[in-house]
TrEMBL record:
Sequence segments annotated as region (Disordered): 140-163
Residue spans of biased composition, Polar residues class: 142-154
UniProtKB keywords: Signal
Protein name: Uncharacterized protein
Keyword Signal appears in the UniProt entry: yes
Signal sequence coordinates: 1-21
Organism in which the protein naturally occurs: Telmatocola sphagniphila
């Protein structure tokens, strides 16, 4: 009688370890994707800062004070509000866009894996993280359609100007 119970207990522990390892792998993969995104984001910030430095230096060499002031405003908005400068070259825009798409794909994969493993709580938590990440991206891109409790909605429609 003890032998079958012992085998059953060992089998249960084995399945529990496999399920835990699978969940752990999903979390590890998502954490690795977040780390890669953070690294790409730091590199991108450095690249944009260097690009702004070069533009400002060129404007000052040309004695173009108006352009230098605009660049300073771009830099201030970039550093204080995380707003991407409108005149940013496409390769730099593409770098951050690719990094964001990769992280979003990692979030979506984690949600699918947690859902397959019937880990609804974890899937919901990752969905909330993804929604917060997408909202942060939209705010940093100046998207007026994003509203949250901490960020008031900007009313830019012409019909709102008359109110």
């Amino acid at each position: 009688m003890r032998y079958p119970l012992l085998c059953l207990a060992l089998l249960f522990n084995l399945f529990a370890c496999v399920a835990f390892a699978q969940d752990d792998a999903v979390a590890k993969n998502l954490d690795a994707a977040k780390d890669r995104y953070d690294k790409a984001l730091r590199e991108w910030y450095t690249s944009v800062s260097n690009w702004l430095d070069q533009r400002e230096e060129a404007a000052r060499k040309e004695s173009n004070n108006k352009t230098a002031e605009l660049i300073k405003l771009d830099r201030q908005a970039f550093l204080d509000k995380d707003e991407t400068p409108e005149s940013l070259p496409n390769p730099l825009k593409q770098d951050i866009s690719d990094a964001r798409k990769t992280l979003i794909a990692a979030y979506e994969t984690a949600i699918k894996e947690y859902t397959k493993a019937s880990k609804d709580t974890e899937a919901t938590a990752v969905e909330k993280e993804l929604a917060a990440f997408k909202a942060k991206i939209a705010v940093s891109n100046g998207d007026p359609s994003v509203a949250s409790s901490t960020q008031p909605r900007r009313l830019t429609s012409p019909k709102w100007k008359s109110i």
